[in-house]
Structure of Cellulose synthase-like protein E1:
Amino acid sequence: MGNEGYLPLFETRRAKGTVLYRVFAASIFAGICLIWVYRLSHIPKAGEDGRYGWIGLLGAEIWFGFYWLLTQASRWNRVYRYTFKDRLSQRYENELPGVDVFVCTADPTIEPPMMVINTVLSVMAYDYPPEKLSVYLSDDGGSELTYYALLEAAEFAKHWIPYCKRYKVEPRSPAAYFVTVSADAIDDDQAKDFWVTKKSYKEMENQIQNAVKLGRISEEVRSKCKGFSQWDPNSSRRDHDTILQILIDGRNPNSRDVEGCVLPTLVYLAREKRPQHHHKFKAGAMNALIRVSSNISNGQVILNVDCDMYSNNSIAIRDVLCFFMDEEEGQEVAFVQFPQNFENITKNDLYSNSLRVIYEVEFHGLDGYGGTLYVGSGCFHRRETLCGRKFIKGSKIDMKWEFSGQREESRIHELEENSRSLASCTFEENTQWGKEMGLKYGCPVEDVITGLSIQCRGWKSVYCNPSRKAFLGVAPTTLTQTLVQHKRWTEGNFQILLSKYSPAWYAHGKISFGLQLGYCCYCFWCSNSLATLFYSIVPSLYLLKGISLFPQVWSPWLIPFAYVIVSKYTRSFVEFLGCGGTILGWWNDQRIWLYKRTSSYLFAFIDTILNSLGYSDTAFVITSKVDDEDVSERYKKEVMEFGDSSPMFTVLATLAILNLYCFLGFLNKAISGEGIAEAYEKMPLQILLCGVLVLLNLPLYQALYLRKDKGKMPSSVAFKSMAFAVSACICFQYLY
Ligand SMILES: *[C@@H]1O[C@H](CO)[C@@H](O)[C@H](O)[C@H]1NC(C)=O
Ligand SMILES: CC(=O)N[C@H]1CO[C@H](CO)[C@@H](O)[C@@H]1O
């Protein structure tokens, strides 16, 4: 094809106001440098008050300044992508590649089968030629209930998919659809089909819920389907043979929906598990899926979604193909990541789970440097790059679809048999799987490190964030869940920094410098904890004692502090509102920022260090998924949940009480002594800092002292933290 008059399949636009932002950032940096100068030039002499506090603050401020520089990488060069799906259809409609969708689930109690099959149905109903679409469910729970739910879903899909296509309904997860669409908004000619479909959905839901309540499959159901014979009575979750079944074969002429159209392929897989073989978590499941799918459908494009993230946009695959199939720039794109959005976020996002700024700002910045992170769910890969292919300039990956003929029913059994061994425990021994092929093992954030290694092989990635969100998931609904989730991420990111693939050195020269900084920004998350802890404890203690650690009101050195504080928080506020947040949401975000740094990141830091010294996992973290009625009531009302005695809460409560004690102690002293105004002239920033910490912690004081419901702080935690905080204050005041 000649390139004259050639129209690209996608377009990249730079963010507006970039120059202005850079000037602004430079001015903040100047302020930071002045702060450093002030700290260095005013260190109290040995024997003077506050020398150690001062030196500690110097360390913390150097760290914050350095970290601030890292965060600039994700704002310096933001880009936005736009696709032209109509051009794609015109040029390639008949040659679109095969797409294999991997849905991963691990536990039928935490991830209820109904949720799983809603995700499966939503991706089966993609607006894409069904013979080219295959959906694989990997069930690491090896649960008969999930399998049964999938059997029912395969039956229901025969009604659901034609219904979706005929009336172009959105979203295509039946649960979400039936909740959002009211019957009054349906046209008359659709109404009959609507009710029939809804009824059959409800029937299916009942059947599945009954089985879930019972906790097992009834004999009657079991006798109807021979697939259940794959569960033998002696097997357990951690010890069973590979269970594999092709529930629908898209290449079998008999697999048709109720209107006689082809259905997408649907496969259930529970890979072999044995106690003596480590299962390697989700990475292991993904790698088994990559191999099994290569034998069954071998789609050129692989989509990975978590079982709690349904597709909210049936044409998202076409967005992705605009990147992969673009003639000019497409050849270097290895994966396309969508943001992870959540439908469960309350108005003011109490736990700051939406990660708004990361997805609406920072990832666009990384995209400007040639690659966003692979963050798991909602990511489309080329099969070959996921399997280890290196980028070579000028060589092309041919994505065109080749029809490989129909498959008779009799062949399916044979296909299942020879696919089984691909999912066995021993298959990967002495191979490159988990190292150079597939997802990498040995890191809690296998996705990020895999994405990084792909980029180190020369590939680019693209961040695709259309205004209509392509995937919607479920966010944690308690503070503990949020903190534990962040602990895992932070720990994983820190391990990447220390690993062979460290973005700080290994990636140097392999990916762009901006992207290196961008990765470091996430990898250094947990080292923030020490500086933050210092900043939220020491100035308050000195305030109590009446020793100033910051410039006084009339000192010119106050100006850089004031400038950095005001401009940094103004930017953060404007940015947050610009991403669709609320004012209260921003305030909540600041609180969670503090909580994450002083608990999740701290524990992640300690755990990583202990691990690398050879101590195995500490028992710091207990995950409990308490999802009773009360908890979700409180979540809806945006009341913070402190109801379990996690050690993280002890740390948070100790800090909160310490600050309150210091603040009240200071007020008391100032009123009875020199007076508030004088104290303020001497220590304006310390008062501000301690005061803001107290304000941020208001919900925590309520949970400690005022609330009566089950979400209040358990008294054991309250007692411990009170004892820690008060004794720390008293020791500091009288001994130091
Ligand atoms: C999900 O899709 C629906 C259309 O079905 C759309 O109205 C809605 O805005 C989407 N949700 C998000 C968060 O973009
Ligand atoms: C799956 C789940 O937890 N859904 C909940 C999300 O949050 C809303 C309230 O905002 C609840 O109504 C849902 O039950």
Summary: Residues 114 and 149 are 7 Å apart (CA to CA). The chain is about 50% helix and 10% strand. The longest helix spans residues 583-612. The chain has two domains: 31-74+514-735, 83-475.
